[in-house]
Each structure stands twice: as structure tokens, then as C-alpha cells.
Amino acid sequence: MKLSRKLLMLLAVLLSFSLIAAACGDDEDVDAGAGDTSDETDVVDDTTDDMTDDMTDDMTDDMTDDMTDDTSVPAGDGLVIGTVLPETGGLAFLGPPQIEGAALAAADLAAAGANVTVITGDSGTDGAVAQETVGRLLGEGANAIVGAAASGVSQDIIQTLSDAAIPQCSASNTSPAFTGQENAGYYFRTVPPDEAVSPIIADVVSTDGRTNVALVARADDYGNALAGLVAAELDGLGIANGTISYDPENVASDSVVGDVAAQGADAVVIIGFDEAFPIIKAALEAGVAPDAMYGADGVFSNTLNASIDEANPNVIDGFTLIGASGGADFNARLTEITEGNLIYGGQAYDCVITLALAFAQAGTTDGDALIAAVLDVTNDDGGDTTCTSYQECADAIAAGEGIDYDGVSGPIDLDAGGDPTFGRYAIAQFQDGVLVTIDSQDIDLNF
What we know:
Layout: H1 5-23, H2 40-68, E1 79-85, H3 95-111, E2 116-122, H4 127-139, E3 144-147, H5 151-163, E4 168-170, E5 187-189, H6 198-207, E6 212-218, H7 221-236, E7 240-246, H8 253-263, E8 267-271, H9 277-285, E9 293-295, H10 304-308, E10 320-324, H11 328-338, H12 345-362, H13 367-377, E11 385-387, H14 390-398, E12 403-405, E13 422-431, E14 434-444
Parallel strand pairs: 1-2, 1-3, 3-4, 4-5, 6-7, 6-8, 8-9, 9-10, 11-12
Antiparallel strand pairs: 10-13, 13-14
Helix pairs in contact: 1-2, 1-4, 2-4, 3-12, 4-5, 6-7, 8-9, 12-13, 12-14
């Protein structure tokens, strides 16, 4: 009897999660996005038990099918993309643009008649939720994964996906740790590492005439890395600055604001997630003007004002946010759904379309062939046709042409390590209680 590829994948995933259950009890989250302080060992054990029951049932069904039909599912029978994005947890407020961006891509693929299906799942903000979701999605036949949103959560699932040879695309992982990482052979992203956004943050602050900047950052890989990069850019511009780090698990807002005052800062840059909201509120109460505050991608939300003071929508009018987004046309399309929440929406769209184009070119769902095609369809190898939509690109592939997909988030142009060499960023500001995009900047890391 010849076992199906799906069954073999399920067996591999079950083994991976058994190993994870044994190892996770003493592990800490690798990067930003780990906000759960519950007993991770219990969560993982319960999750593993539940998954074992569910997956055993699935495998029993599959084995029955195999016994009556000795034909494996042929490679290239249709691409299934699973999304692992924050529907719950501390980053849920950042989820809608990515979730809806992926949904818009799925709608465009359906309209073009692509043999691609998108199935969805929650990443939460801790590894156990994401691991359970990955197990379910792979059990449902996913050949590729989009997610997770937080770098730390992606680190929690990357080994499982690597072991199963499943391509993984993140629209929002900005940690430099993935670059050159040993188990990142099937991983790529559509947003550049933090080195791309740091000069934009510094430029916005400088253009506003700030002379002394407090960088308020969570004390983890995300906060430390981005704060260090922004500080270096400010140093280069001759702008005084200081970094004030805080424990994201035990935020002492008054102490942080006291340090800002002691520095004599005339501007504050917030580098954190939802745990930073009390710091923003405390700063306002201490007399820091909203137009002297700036936020990086982790607080980029059209509902940030409601999180600070639900009764006063104008509470942070003048507050400026900087984060990765799509181009103007796509942003207008997404805004109709998310009411101005754009962060990483274009990048999520491009994850889905890039994987679909890789499938169209490779003609198979084999992981090695797909990831090789991902690099091919996002770069001009000389004489390739530049195209900007799935339909246009798919037509070129069908005509035997090489393609270079320029997405809604820009040219992408992945390097050999799966990092984009182009970034597109929105600069938005709260005005009259509404988050409004006031500018955008592109950055080409090739120069």
C-alpha cells in the first residue's frame, strides 16, 4: 500500500508537535509578540492532547481511503494557502488589515479562476495557539502558510513548517533574526527588516523640527533592535536622543513618563504593542502633547484613540504613526473595509499572490519547487515581464514568459535569503478623531 502525501505530512506534523510539547515547558518567546503569562506547559500539553485526538481521527480516515484507493494525490492538484494571523490576543488590533488583505487576494484569485484556496486560522500571541492552528491547517491540506504576524510567534512555528517543507510567508516579521537563520529555508517575507523603517521614523521626527527624542521601547528583541536602529539614524542627523526601555510584562507607566521628563525630550517615539497604551495615556496626563508623540508599527491602529480614551475620540489628535502598507490604490480599497487601518495589509495581499504565482510557475505544490519559484517570480532575471496583478502575471506565465511581480506593496525583489529589498510605508496621523494617511515613503535597500 502506498501512503498518500497528505498522510505522511500528518504523521510528520504529529511527531513535530510531540517534540514541541516536550521542549516548550522551559522555552521563552524568541521575539516580540509573546504576551501570555499563563502556564505554557499546560497549554501545550492540552493542545497536543487535543491535536492528537483530532489528527488520529483524520489519519484513520485517510488510512481507510488509502486502503481502498492506492493512488496518491498528485502534486499540483491545487494550491491551499493557510493563514495564521492574530484574531485573538494582544495583537488582535493589528489583525484586520492582514486578514482582510489576504481575503482581498483570495477574492482576486477566485475572479481570475486560479486553482488556489485560502483557509484561515488564528495565531493568537503565544506559540501554543499558532502551533495548534498550523497543525489543523496542514491537516486540512495546506501547502503554504501566511503568517504569523509577530516575529516571536513565527519563530514558534518555523521549525515545524521547515520540517514539513511548507513555504511560509510573513507580511509583518521585521526582526533581523530570520535573515540567514538555519531553519528559514522555506521562509520569506514581504516586509523588509527594521533597518528599512528606521530612517523613515527619524526623517519624520527631524522634519517636524524635534531636537531631543525619547525612544520608549519594550525590552525585547523587537524593541531593542528598532530603538537601536532609530537612535543610530537620529545620531546621524545630529538629533539628541535617549532610549527608555520597559518590561512589557510589568509596565511602570509613571516611571517611564518620569524618565521622559528627566531627559527633557520634546518628542516621544513609542516602540511597543498594546501594553504601551497606558504609557501613552500617562504621557498625555503628564502634559506631553499628542503632536509630540510618534508610534512605530506595533501601535499603528485606527482605534488607538479609543484604546486611550473611549469617550474622547480627539484625545490623540496630532499623534503620528509610521508603518508598512500598500500603495495608494490598494490602501483606498482596504480602507473601505478596515476604516483606515492599513498596517501590513498590502504585504499580506502580496504574500498570497506571490505564493499563487509561484504555484502557477512551478506547476506543483512541492515545497522545494514552490520556494524556488517564489524567488523567481519576484525578481527580474533579465528580460522578464514586469506585471502588477495575478491575472497579468499568470497570463505571462501561460505564454512562457518569465515574470517579475511588482505587488501592491512595491516591487518586493526578494534577495537570496527571502528578504525584500524594497519597502513601502504609510505615515498617518489622527485628525478630528480619525486616522488619516498624510504621506507615504518608499525605500530601496539596494541603494
